[in-house]
Specification:
The protein is an alpha/beta fold and about 325 residues long. The chain folds into two domains: about 170 residues, Medium-chain alcohol dehydrogenases, catalytic domain (Quinone Oxidoreductase, Chain A, domain 1), CATH 3.90.180.10; about 140 residues, 3-Layer(aba) Sandwich (Rossmann fold). It has twelve helices and 15 strands. Helix 7 links the parallel strand 11 and strand 12. It is globular and about 55 Å long. Bound molecules: NADP nicotinamide-adenine-dinucleotide phosphate (NAP). NADP nicotinamide-adenine-dinucleotide phosphate binds next to helix 2, helix 3, helix 4 and helix 12.
Amino acid sequence: MQAIYLVKNGKTKEAFEFRDIQMTEPKDNEVGVIVEASGINFADVVARLGQYQDCPPLPTIIGYEAVGRVEKVGKDVTTLKKGDRVLAFTRFGGYSQYVTQQESAVAKIGEDMDAGKALALATQYSTAFYACSVATNVLPNETVLIHAGAGGVGTALIQLCKLKNAKIYATAGSESKLEYCRKQGAHVVINYTKEDFSEVIKEPIDFAFDAVGADNFRKSYKLLNRGGRIIGYGAAAMTDASNIFSKAKMGLQFGIYHPAQLLMESRSMIGVNMLRIADYKPDTLKYCMESVIQLLHEGKIDPHVGKMYAAKDIYQAHDDMLDRKTMGKIGIVW
Ligand SMILES: NC(=O)c1ccc[n+]([C@@H]2O[C@H](COP(=O)([O-])OP(=O)(O)OC[C@H]3O[C@@H](n4cnc5c(N)ncnc54)[C@H](OP(=O)(O)O)[C@@H]3O)[C@@H](O)[C@H]2O)c1
């Protein structure tokens, strides 16, 4: 059995190393899962680059999700048994042929569920569901702005907001991504490499979902309606900052806000970090995962699997994600 260790921050070839691992015993409230496929998220790329403060010290195994079969069951586990096919939210450790995880972060999935689609549910769809249905709630006919709409979380947000009958604006960085966003349900699509979204959008926005950060966040905030909310859940732009000065400059580009201003304007800012939700509100994470699994079973959402790479091609998968070549979910198959 093997796992992919992150041994060095930087370029993919030097960053990852395949190492043999043992099947360890799960704790009393955990299960041990033999993994068939592991998901890749943008946060993994940020961790590889050494820009993710939550990443454990190296060498470590990164990765937020895995699909597989329960092999070992802790004595306090009540809802899972050996042989169950499951999706696990792994909070690091996912790039491995064997993971242990507490019961509350593991959900049963159907035998016939596509592994790539299932992987999309753990982090990306659960994050999107939390952002638009738990932390706040999008109502019919409200206007939403979704940045990086062709990405994993972006796809999930478009599909979930479409279910809510919202009017959807989506941004992306190429014509093929715009076409993809349209197919997912976006009403207005904007290529941010050619146009400034803040000039194209002529009506107030009720919700802005932003994981790009810097001036993207500030411009999105300015578009907010009274009663509008901006949900910040990432800062992909920061990966472009090569030194502490450009990082500080980008930090300032978010803008400076005072609580009295939010009150007077009746606007809200909501920060989302699913790791913190997993740590402090495990039942909420479970609720999000089970809700999106249910929506998939009901045919109301349909995760798009951009590509499943062979595990040996982890290097290419990471390069493609950072180079903005991916759409929807990507992962590796063991
Ligand atoms: N807070 C949380 O709990 C949480 C959970 C999951 C994900 N996230 C965040 O949500 C975002 C999306 O995650 P994901 O896994 O679904 O990834 P993804 O959207 O599938 O991939 C990242 C996309 O971001 C866009 N992008 C914008 N600026 C970029 C830059 N400077 N470098 C590279 N890409 C850039 C690219 O799309 P375009 O080509 O259209 O620009 C790229 O395809 C990430 O920022 C991630 O960190 C946060």
